[in-house]
Write a structure and sequence with these properties.
8% of the residues lie in helices and 63% in strands. The longest helix is centred in the N-terminal third of the chain and has 11 residues, at 20-30. The chain has one domain: 2-Layer Sandwich (60s Ribosomal Protein L30, Chain: A). Strands 1, 2, 3, 4, 5, 6, 7, 8 and 9 form a nine-stranded mixed sheet that branches. By secondary structure, it is mainly beta.
């Protein structure tokens, strides 16, 4: 267990045709946030979600207009200092069918996405490679 305090709360708009994951990473870096959490809603032209199985993420691609019903995650650093956005997202199509999974690159924003970054301070979250799972997991 690690404990910290809530710092800055920063709101962003992500624009049409931006890659959602890259946009989140860029805004997180620009804000100099290394530990925290995020929430996001909006719309997508297409989505790429991951389902973890046997040491890798199986990619689920949905190529149609979607609403982001929910997206939340945490912000940390890998042991080599690389920024990690670990987020899960649920999207829905025009019939109300829901799809969920790990947020991957390849999600193209439609009209907008609204991002809230919440900084944590007094705490540093690091991720360490656990070879058993082939995943960088929180070192807590």
């Amino acid at each position: 267990m690690k404990e910290g305090k809530t710092g800055r709360v920063i709101f962003f708009r992500i624009f049409e045709d931006e890659d959602l994951l890259e946009a989140i990473k860029r805004r997180t870096r620009e804000s100099k946030i290394h530990t925290g959490y995020l929430f996001l809603i909006g719309s997508l032209k297409e989505a790429s979600l991951g389902f973890y199985e046997k040491g890798e993420y199986k990619r689920i691609t949905i190529k149609e207009p979607l609403e982001i019903a929910s997206c939340m995650g945490n912000i940390s650093l890998r042991e080599d200092g690389e920024l990690v956005i670990h987020a899960h997202m649920v999207v829905s199509d025009k019939k109300g069918n829901a799809y969920g999974g790990h947020l991957l690159d390849g999600c193209k924003v439609a009209a907008t996405a609204e991002l809230i970054l919440i900084e944590a301070y007094g705490i540093e979250l690091k991720r360490k490679l656990e070879t058993r799972y082939n995943l960088y997991l929180l070192d807590i």
